[in-house]
Amino acid sequence: MKRIRICSASEIPSNGMKSYDSALGVKVLIANAGEAFYAYQGLCPHQDVCLDEGFFDGATLTCHQHLWQWDITTGAAVGLAEAPLERYELQHEGGEIFVLQSSALKVSELFKGVSDAAIARLDALARREEHAGQTTLYELGDPADDLYILESGRVEFVIGREDRTSMAGFMLRKGEVFGWAALLEDHPRRIARAACMEKSSLLRLNGEEVLKVLADDPMSGFLVMRQLSTLITKHLRSSGGK
Ligand code: FES
Question: Which atom of ligand 1 is nearest to the CA of 80?
């Protein structure tokens, strides 16, 4: 895990917050509450608004734009907020604040519980990609060879062709997996168009290569397949299926 210096602790006001552009490639918010420091994503998960322009009373962080709120100790959504904040592991040493860069694989719902050895193999196979906003990742009907794990940014999905399209949702939480059809048999085709709506960082894994790693570690493979079926069920429910 890579350690990245963000700032000196003395730069953060007592029970206050400040955000920084970081070597993670994203803005990071550092907040102080009493003796403790916390590190979170610097932009609101709702829209691209800097969270340090909001309000912080030492316990609850509020985005000034539409008043989404989060518990500063956990990043959990409070009140109106519809998504939690991404939290970074923070180290406070010698008056300096650092965050640890962790792989999105570790926090992914799909790979939850998978052995460290399998995660390490998957991490080695993953291609890390950075995309600018308005970049198409795949179109409806493209071959579904690879799956993606979101590290940062926002990806939107649209179903249908040309003028007969409809929004199928978006992803913005680190570790969210999409393009999981790459793990299914018979080389399925994409059923939606996926595009980065802002600068986004992704891990890209070939479905066949993932299956080989899982075949070598049946317990991990069982967990991933069980979690994949939960993901598919959620998708069917949200798109009105059974
Ligand atoms: S932009 Fe932050 S709550 Fe809407």
Answer: 3
Report the CATH number that the domain containing residue 69 is assigned in CATH: 2.102.10.10
Shared domain for 93 and 23, answered yes or no, is: yes
Domain's final residue, options 48, 77, 101: 101
Question: The tokens of 63 are what?
Answer: 């985005």
**Assign residue 225 a region: left if phi > 0, alpha if psi is -120 to 50, beta otherwise?**
alpha
Give the domain range for residue 189.
104-238
Pocket test for ligand 1, best of 56, 61, 63 (most atoms within 8 A of CB): 63
pLDDT digits (tens, 9 = 90+) for 37-71: 999 999 998 887 999 999 999 999 999 999 999 99
The runs of H, that is alpha helices, within the chain are: 104-107, 116-125, 207-215, 218-238
Provide the residue type at 63 as one letter: C
* DSSP-derived secondary structure letter, 80: T
Protein residue with its CA nearest to atom 1 in ligand 1: 47
Predicted TM-score of the model (pTM): 0.64
Which DSSP string corresponds to 129-183? Answer: EEE-TTEEEE-TTSB--EEEEEEES-EEEEEEETTEEEEEEEE-STT-EE-GGGG
User: In the structure, which protein residues have their CB atom closer than 6 angstroms to any atom of ligand 1?
Assistant: 44, 46-47, 49, 63, 65-66, 68
